[in-house]
Amino acid sequence: MLLRWIAAEGRRRARPPRPLARALSYGRVVDAAARDGELRVFVVAGEVSGDSLASRLMASLRALSPVPVRFAGVGGELMCKEGLQSLFPMEEIAIMGMWELLPHIYSIKRKIEDTANAAMLFQPHAVVTVDSKGFCFRLLKQLKCRSNQKVQSPLHIHYVSPSFWAWKGGESRLSKLHNFVDHMLCILPFEEEICRLNGLPATYVGHPLLDDAIGLNMGAELSSDKSKYQRSCEAFRLEHGVSPGATIITMLPGSRMQEVVRMLPIFLHTVQNLRQTFNELSLVIPVAPHRDVRTYIEKVVQSGPFPVVLIPGGSLKERYNAFSASRAALCTSGTAVMELMLARLPCVVAYQAHFITECFIHLRKKINFISLPNILLNSPVVPEILFRACTAKNLAAKLSEVISNDQIRQMQIESADQVFKVLYEPIKKRDTLLREEIGYSGLSSNFLSPSMIAALTVLYMDKHQNTACWNLVV
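Now predict its structure.
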């Protein structure tokens, strides 16, 4: 299977390291850092998924940089573990939706100003913003305007291309980004070409779920072998006191406070509607590393009729242990859908928004699906219950099918390999070429993960020497 092969590549012994090749020695960031004796990277993330992406990038930058690395910016718990002192709590800018943003506009503007001031004082060689395009693009615009034209400005790199391809007329907006974004790091293979066709330099670095596959040691943790699965399931039940006969349902109501407040009550009512169908139910909720989110969830579930196991959502191993013990999942649309595919856990995707936001989406969208597996395969592999249709009654009916119907379950499980093949195949050639030219100096693995490819792009990409420096990996 594809994922087992990926895991095996990550475990192979690395070849002896050798110096970076001459072709990759003209990186603007590396050259400037070498002159200063340190690499200064200003990094900003505004969501839990961005915190995870950025923390892995930070670790890879530290491993690959020829000089010591210093970080500053805005981030979450995982980024702080990599040495970041966040200017303010990341959750203060984690706001999604048009109508939902209105009460926070003044606060967000102040935070953009404060962040820009901090970036200018830090004098970074590179500014890396991760997802959260509403905040990050406004920040990059400010930084570009403030740059002293007599001094070379830092390289502006945005990690995770905005999904403009999903909206009517959206691709034309990409052509305007080159005014303040020097390079785009894409996590979907087709995005690189779309960006380049619209005048924006871009590199497909691989989806972060491939990093998860390596981090989980896929061959052992997520094997299809039933005996291993059974042991994992039994260990989870024993650890958390879940009855052997209970049907476990994982609920992923989101990472932002506004999402959790909207979706968790619907999810709980959904499970209540299943009481007549399934004798014994037990719920598992991976809680985002956000104090207010955890407090809210604890308060809501303590009065519920079902036993609920809360696990730290920031722990990769604990999340996937919970997935392996579950029969099905209810999931707010987002990165978590891909995690469930990786874990081979059948799920139902749900999403609600304010009425005005919903109307805007209906008017502007040009794709038929909202969840990434369905988009990549252009097929309704994962059931989606969205907007006004997203009621406890409708979710309960669909979730009951996913729990009980073996054909529906098998279709989702078999689709997982197709999804990850789509994501992995485009970086195989890129990985091989980089392996030949770089020799993995200082690395213990000869498999370049997405975070490593992203770090190499930050270090050695120069927009003024784009073709000369990076034709190795295109």
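The longest helix spans residues 406-438.
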